[in-house]
Amino acid sequence: MFDYVIIRTECPFCRKMITGFQTKDGNQNFDKLTPEQVNRFYTTCPNCRKWVEFNRKVSGEYYVPIQDILKDFELEKSQEKEARK
Fold this sequence. Notes:
Strand order of the largest sheet: 4-1-5
Shape: globular
Structural class: mainly beta
Number of domains: 1
Oligomer: single chain
């Protein structure tokens, strides 16, 4: 099981808007969480089928204002394989 992460952002590969992020950082009861509440979230882009994963950068501060939330994450570049169809 997993939780949903409510965020809409641009795919770093094809630049289409994507949603539908998931995480296992929460209670894994299909809860709806914000990016501030997790350290890792991911999805497959429905357009280009690439795996898109964000991992929280190591820092002393956990909370990041929503307008800067993706600045506190880095794209998992080792996951450049296409997701299974």
